[in-house]
């Protein structure tokens, strides 16, 4: 999947992505991933150089990618996608052609906008499904992250089963292009 700036627009503004620059974006990402609201990102104790090193590793990986998400041109979220046949879920389920794994993180804010996180995940999925090769998006959030389970279901994800990853017990869920369109109307 290439990084195309397709954009997604709704009543909250325009959501776009750009390639992540691990060297220049590490400071910003460090603030985001160590914020108490990012506990499920599992980088609470990371130092800036740890964040830079992690995203340099992702930038060099042909099976894992990261983008910085922008809301009306300003950094607002992190988007990662990966090939589940090679990363994250190897041996935990049988990947199908066109499966793409996904993570996203919304930047912490003191002035939240109602519906913003749902707009972000919608923009992320719209971006992933813009690639005709993407048939299904796969997520594996922590089983205790009830807020993200509800959010995932609102945009078309269907929970399949719990799985044990080295770092957590996760809820494996899938969203096809058709489920995404039916839940959001985006791409219809």
UniProtKB/TrEMBL annotation:
Residues 18-65 form the Acyltransferase MbtK/IucB-like conserved domain. Pathway: Siderophore biosynthesis; mycobactin biosynthesis. SMART domains: AlcB. It comes from the Bacteria. InterPro entries: Acyl_CoA_acyltransferase, Acyltransferase_MbtK/IucB-like. GO terms for molecular function: acyltransferase activity. Keywords: Acyltransferase, Transferase. The keyword Ligase does not apply. Acyltransferase required for the direct transfer of medium- to long-chain fatty acyl moieties from a carrier protein (MbtL) on to the epsilon-amino group of lysine residue in the mycobactin core. This is Lysine N-acyltransferase MbtK.
């Amino acid at each position: 999947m290439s990084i195309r700036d397709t954009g997604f627009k709704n009543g909250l503004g325009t959501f776009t992505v750009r390639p992540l620059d691990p060297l220049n974006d590490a400071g910003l990402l460090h603030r985001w991933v160590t914020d108490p609201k990012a506990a499920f990102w599992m980088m609470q104790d990371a130092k800036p150089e740890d964040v830079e090193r992690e995203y340099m590793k992702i930038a060099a990986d042909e099976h894992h990618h990261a983008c910085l998400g922008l809301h009306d041109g300003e950094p607002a979220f992190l988007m990662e996608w990966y090939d589940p046949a090679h990363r994250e879920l190897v041996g935990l389920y049988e990947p199908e052609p066109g499966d793409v794994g996904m993570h996203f993180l919304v930047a912490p804010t003191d002035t939240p906008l109602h519906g913003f996180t749902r707009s972000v995940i919608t923009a992320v999925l719209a971006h992933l499904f813009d690639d005709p090769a993407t048939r299904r998006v796969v997520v594996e959030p922590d089983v205790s992250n009830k807020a993200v389970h509800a959010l995932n279901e609102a945009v078309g994800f269907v929970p399949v089963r719990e799985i044990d990853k080295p770092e957590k017990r996760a809820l494996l869920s899938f969203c096809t292009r058709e489920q995404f369109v039916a839940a959001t109307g985006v791409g219809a």
